[in-house]
Amino acid sequence: MKEIEKIRQYADSLRLTLLKNHPESLIHEAQIDNPGYLGFTLNLLEREIKQRQKTDLERRLTLARLPKDNDLAQYDFNHSNGISKPQLKELRELLWLDQNYNLILMGPSGTGKTYIASGLVHDAVKAGYKAYFKTMEELLTILRMKEMTGSAMNAYNRLLKANLIAIDDIMLFPMKKNEAVAFFNMVNHLHEKCSIIVTTNKSPKQWAETLDDEVLATALLDRLLYRCEVIKLDGNSYRMENRKSIFNQ
Question: pLDDT digits over 82-122, tens only?
């Protein structure tokens, strides 16, 4: 039908994705329910808004680059690691994010640092914030390549406009001087504009050794710790206590 094709074209021009992809079913549904002109228009616009919100959320979750496990509703409090259910609930309310507070999650491997960080990024994205999860290695790659490739520069510009950035395994490996300076410059630019979550298995005192520059480490910590909650996680590794086997139990 020519009318259907015109509807598709007009819907495409107006970015009405639902109407563009399903005009026949929407019209057939209206013919059966007979909602009237006002009801049909209102219903169509409401469904388009929901579809656009769903698509936008999916896009932002993809850009956040989250690990597979990030649903804090499934957090296992039976595994004691130093964070309580009320504390996690308060963090998930994201009031600290509106105040540009930072979080440092510090502790041995397997104590839930990455899970908590990625879960809070997931919550932030769902709440409408621009939030991203990066390993330190991924972040350093962006900083190294941003002057060379458009994709790295685009990723860097997105980070500069973020509301929340989680940096996983900071200071795990030594950094070259130019990488450390580039990282400091980014943190300095984001200072009091964006919340940063850091996961680390090293104390702040050990950062100077990793950076091989006590002055730079002090300046970096000065910005991260200014408005910051340091959460020390401990206990045994959750992964080791719940490791899987290829053999039947």
Answer: 788 899 999 999 999 999 999 999 988 878 889 999 999 99
* Backbone CA torsion sign across 153, 155, 156, 158: positive
| Cβ neighbours for 199, distance < 8 A, ≥ 6 positions apart | 105, 106, 113, 114, 117, 166, 167, 168, 169, 170
Residue numbers of the domain that contains 96:
72-241
Q: Can you tell me which residue has the tokens 């991924």?
A: 138
Q: Which residues contact 141 (CB under 8 A, 6 or more apart)?
A: 152
The model carries a pTM of 0.79
The total of structural domains in the chain comes to: 2
> Degrees (nearest 5) of the Cα angle 172, 84, 78?
90
Task: For residue 198, give both structure tokens.
Answer: 């850091």
Asked whether residue 35 falls in the same domain as residue 85, the answer is no
89 and 142 assigned to the same domain: yes
- CATH no. for residue 109? 3.40.50.300
Given pLDDT bands bounded at 50, 70 and 90, which one contains residue 177? Answer: confident
